[in-house]
Amino acid sequence: MSTSLYELKKIFLLQKGLHFILLLLFLKALLLFLMDKPVNADIEMNYPHYFSYLKEVQGSYSEIAEQFILEESERIANAKTLQQKMTEDYYDGVIEEAEFLAGTLPLERVLQNERGYELIYDQYTYIREHPADRYFLYRNGWDGLLSNDTLDLLWVLLVVLLVAPVYCYEYENKMDMLLLTVRKGTFQQSVCKICMALLSVALLSLLMSYMEFVFFQLKYGLEHGNYPLQSLSYFAESKKKCTLFEAFLWVTSGKVFGSLYLALLILFVSVCMKRYAFTLFTCTGILLIPYYGLPLESSKYNIPTPLGFLVSTGYLRGDEYRRDPFNDQLTAVFREVSLTTLGIVLGISLLLIFIMLLMIVILRSNAWSIKTGRFRGRLFSIPLLIWLSVTLLSGCTSSDYSEQSTTYNFSTRSSCENNNYRFYLDETDLNNILTVFEDKRTGKKNEFMRNATSALTRVQNSLFCTGSYVYYMKYDSEKKRRFEEQKWFSIVQVDMDNFNEKVIFEKNLNSEERFFIDAKKMGNYESAFFFSIQAFFLDDKNIYFIGPEEIRSINRSTGTMKVVLRISPISSLAFDGRTVYYVNNSYVIKYDAVTQTKTTIPDIVTRDFLLEDNKLIFVNRKDGYRLYMYDLKEYIIRKLIDEPVMSFRFKEQTIYYINKMNLKEYGFKL
Question: Which of 101, 138, 153, 607 has the smallest number of Cβ neighbours within 10 A?
């Protein structure tokens, strides 16, 4: 058996390298299928509507595409205005039902594509800034493949497990001195070991890149690879002139070079230290310390280590800035790596590779081992011990959600009550509006947020009550490194029996690096939604967030987020612990959160309602804006007052309303 075949057999069979490779390939495929989320999930949820517009403008920016987008914008705006007017006229008795249906049907066909148009318009506003090198295209495939700089920890682990035993296995079994006595045990064997190890790593690195390419090709499609790289917003400020497919080839080449660099570093350290554990800690430390520890994200691309090449998308990015809220100045968060800098880093890396190769051959030669063995042992006896402990901040935790009856109204989201307390905004001092709770028995008031709120914490005026628990949401900012501000969004549970607080949900809204293997940086779309949340409610499995035009749910166990309802605009909305009630085109819709089914409640036409004790109190537009009540259990509708109502509110079993004729407020017991 030749030396090469023997070394391959030793790497893949005796040292169980083949087992590690098969396990990694399985885990890699599993993580791609389970953890991959589209960068823009809205496109996938509105796929047909989005593509109906994309096919009209796909490709480079043109006056024809711009005219089409602007005309479509005007058409949708006119359709919304006309539909609203016809709805008002119908319920006010100005037009008949037949005329209403005939007029609104074509308008609904126009508006059903509205969300798809909004997605195309977002691309349009991005492309028109630099139309020469930004094209209209379906981005999710290329974004998933290129738009991240996450270090693949699984791949690093495989390289370490595959390469470290090449020499450490011999040292642990006391074979190193014996091999140096045989004819082919010095130079030839060292060259053979190095070549086989590097060849294996290079082929596996290519295989991993090909696997990712095939996955994104099959799941999303990777069409129009000849479009400019700047068509992806991740590379918006890049000055590199290349296409999407060329960028993939550059990134793949960088990963292969970085993997070879890492493999050679492992061989060098293992020859110097002769200890498997020391080799593992040292090499992972050389990667992880700059990856997690450098203050500027682009710094890792300016040092000659394998790290920059393993996450080589950064070499294609441009200058990026973020406004510092503390001094209102733009602060650099990423500096573009110029071709000159890249050439210097690559040149130093090649020099270090040559030196390591030379040292490996010298350290494994007979002359060096016999004459200077003791000196070499003293020289490399003090290794660099590095161990980085990384903890995963959980986005969702279990909660002590109460199974008692729940009543939530969006219109009264800043106040709620339970059996013992009433929670509301105290607006006595308009310069210092506070959330307070009032003891129903004694009438004593206290500030609800007992801990002093720092300047870096912003509590939203949105509450949710169920049983003895009260929930509120807040944003926390943290001054990191020098200027950078890091934002966290949290849902906090307060047990009113003992006033203990517990965070039941937490989300990092400005995550630069994630600790999940193969996890992607949070997209701008997801982050923007968390900044636009108006209110929330929850059940025992999900937290529901109310945005400007939609409701999204997040599973409290898995952290999976999805859109459950699209409502535009959101006016009246209620939740009873299982069912969501909302208004859509003046009709009240019931959405069952368990079965995920919708039902229209018959004979109710309104824009405003409140849910109280399984009863809907609403302004009936079919009867001249009189106030009615609908029993959700007995399915009975009855009129409460025979006067036109402009608005109303409910407090302590009393309904207060403003008469539409004289604009005076009245009240009556329910």
Answer: 101
Strand order in the sheet with 434-439: 416-417, 421-426, 434-439, 445-447
| Cβ atoms of residues 167 and 271 within 8 Å | yes
Q: Within a 13 Å sphere around the CA of 568, how many CA atoms are in the beta-carbon half?
A: 9
Given pLDDT bands bounded at 50, 70 and 90, which one contains residue 257? Answer: very high
**238-266 burial by CB neighbour count: b if 16+ within 10 A, else e?**
bebebebbbbbebbbebbbbbbbbbbbbb
Q: Which of 76, 174, 81 lies closest to 118, judged by CA?
A: 76
Query: Residue 350's pLDDT band (boundaries 50, 70, 90)?
Result: very high
Model confidence at 627: pLDDT above 70 = yes
Q: At what angle do helices 244-273 and 187-219 cross, to 10 degrees?
A: 150
How many residues are recorded in the chain? 670
More confident of the two residues 471 and 363: 471
Is pLDDT of 522 > 50? Answer: no
Q: Tell me the per-residue pLDDT of 422-438, one tens digit each, with 9 for 90 and over.
A: 888 887 776 777 888 88
Distance from C-alpha of 477 to C-alpha of 457, rounded to nearest angstrom: 6
Q: What is the pLDDT of residue 53?
A: 92
Q: Which runs of E-coded beta strand occur in 88-212?
A: 135-136
Token output for 366:
């007979």
Two tokens, residue 287 = 């990667």
Q: Is the dihedral of CA 100, 101, 102, 103 positive or negative?
A: positive
CB 620 within 8 A of CB 634: no
Closest alpha carbon to 300 in 254, 350, 337, 354: 337
Mean predicted confidence (pLDDT) in 1-18: 67
Question: What's the whole-number average pLDDT of the chain?
Answer: 81
**Cβ(518)–Cβ(154) below 8 Å:** yes
Sheet strands side by side (includes 500-508) = 457-466, 469-479, 485-495, 500-508
Instruction: State the DSSP code for 243.
Output: B
pTM of the model: 0.65
Q: Which helix (H) or strand (E) holds 320?
A: strand 320-324
Other CB atoms within 10 A of residue 172 CB = 13
* Phi and psi, residue 648, nearest 5°: -155, 165
Q: Which residues are 535's β-sheet partners?
A: 546
Between CA 557 and CA 336 the distance in angstroms is 39
The backbone torsions φ and ψ at residue 321, rounded to the nearest 5 degrees and listed phi first, read -130, 155
Report residue 74 as tokens: 């005007």
Q: Compute the distance between CA of residue 175 and CA of residue 186 in angstroms, rounded to an integer.
A: 13
Sequence-ordered list of residues with C-beta below 8 angstroms from that of 220, at least 6 positions apart, any chain: 38, 138, 140, 141, 144
Examine the pLDDT at 378 and tell me if it is beyond 60. Answer: no
Q: What is the model's pLDDT at position 185?
A: 52
**Whose CA is closest to 135, among 61, 209, 63, 76?**
61
Query: Which tokens hold the place of 495?
Result: 């047990």
Chain-centroid distance, C-alpha 188: 51
pLDDT category, 515, cuts 50, 70, 90?
very low
The backbone torsions φ and ψ at residue 536, rounded to the nearest 5 degrees and listed phi first, read -155, 160
Residue 187 has pLDDT above 80, yes or no: no
Phi, psi of 61 (to 5 degrees): -65, 135
Q: Order of strands across the sheet with 654-659?
A: 645-651, 654-659, 665-669
DSSP 8-state code for residue 519: P
pLDDT computed for residue 387 by the predictor: 30
